[in-house]
Design goal:
Layout (H helix, E strand, L loop, with lengths): L18 H19 L5 H10 L4 H4 L10 H5 L2 H16 L4 H11 L16 H24 L5 E2 L12 E2 L3
Antiparallel strand pairs: 1-2
Helix pairs in contact: 1-2, 1-7, 2-6, 2-7, 5-6
């Protein structure tokens, strides 16, 4: 299936073949741990959000090799693409109501802020958790990549996706 081949991005985080599935599996592990800590979390909603949140990238991006943005990716973006797909599936399955609205909200808000691409900020618990674990997984991936190329006792190159910061690689 195409999903398993795609990167999660053109640059910044998980920008390698199968990066999208790697990112989603990492996020599912984080989601399970968080849901274990907070029993009021709706696991079905959180897991659905994790699995679906970047699914639009298989339309937004050109493919796993020499990845670029498609016309749809440039003009619509993966967040709007996946919400449109959820709407189509809900209509096709005859599902409507609050569950569909909240799932769409979780997906629409997963980048957290308007300036990061989300039309709405997270307004339900599972949306906030999805945003936080997406941010954490992407940040750790970018930091790990920078530190892999940094000798102990030195600072990494600046990482644009992490506020242009350099990171120190400890000697221990």
């Amino acid at each position: 299936m195409i999903f398993f081949d795609y990167p999660a991005a053109v640059r910044h985080h998980h920008e390698f073949v199968s990066g999208l599935s790697f990112h989603v599996v990492s996020m599912l592990r984080l989601a399970k741990s968080i849901a274990d800590l907070y029993p009021t979390v709706n696991r079905d909603l959180l897991y659905a959000g994790v699995i679906l949140h970047d699914l639009g990238k298989v339309i937004e991006l050109s493919g796993p090799i020499s990845t670029t943005y498609t016309l749809e990716g440039n003009l619509i973006g993966h967040i709007s693409i996946v919400v449109e797909e959820v709407s189509k599936m809900a209509d096709e399955l005859g599902i409507d109501g609050e569950e569909v609205v909240i799932l769409k909200h979780v997906l629409l808000s997963h980048h957290g802020k308007g300036e990061w691409g989300s039309p709405k900020p997270p307004l339900v618990r599972e949306a906030e958790i999805l945003h936080q674990i997406d941010l954490m997984d992407a940040s750790m991936n970018m930091m790990d990549k920078a530190l892999r190329h940094t000798k102990p006792g030195e600072f990494s190159e600046r990482v644009f996706g992490l506020d242009n910061r350099s990171f120190y690689n400890p000697n221990f």
